[in-house]
UniProtKB/TrEMBL annotation:
Name of the featured protein: Multisubunit sodium/proton antiporter, MrpC subunit
Origin species: Maledivibacter halophilus
InterPro entries membership: CPA3_antiporter_subunitC, NUOK/Mnh_C1-like
Family per similarity comment: Belongs to the CPA3 antiporters (TC 2.A.63) subunit C family.
Compartments, as annotated in UniProt: Membrane
Keyword Membrane recorded: yes
Length: 120
């Protein structure tokens, strides 16, 4: 139980992922599903960035004095998450564009209504 309160970034990331996952599973509205997917993406970004950060170390920007390789935080997780954010924004834009096209075609963005129309 002590580790739960020490690792509060990881705990928050797991809770956020759960909220996004439940939103993705339980709602039929496509916009709500996209929001749930974005919450899950944000949780993953928070988790990886919190794992890549080490208290007491600095960003890897050498200004006056070089502190050696152990004086800086590893920049790779942050760079990967920046790439992930760009991909997540692109996927969100694509999903919203598909939602607009589905609304134009079927007149609704509720998945159960779209499936009902498709069966008829």
């Amino acid at each position: 139980m002590d580790k739960l309160f020490v690792n509060y970034f990881e705990t928050a990331a797991i809770i956020l992922f759960g909220v996004g996952f439940v939103t993705l599973l339980l709602h039929n509205n496509l916009i709500k599903k996209i929001i749930g997917m974005n919450i899950m993406d944000t949780a993953i970004f928070l988790f990886f960035i919190s794992k890549g950060f080490i208290f007491g170390k600095e960003a890897p920007i050498v200004s006056d004095v070089h502190k050696g390789t152990y004086g800086y935080v590893n920049p790779v997780p942050t760079a990967l998450m920046l790439t992930g954010i760009v991909v997540a924004v692109s996927i969100t834009a694509f999903a919203l564009a598909l939602t607009v096209k589905l609304h134009e075609e079927y007149g609704t963005i509720e998945l159960d209504e779209i499936m009902k129309i498709r069966r008829e």
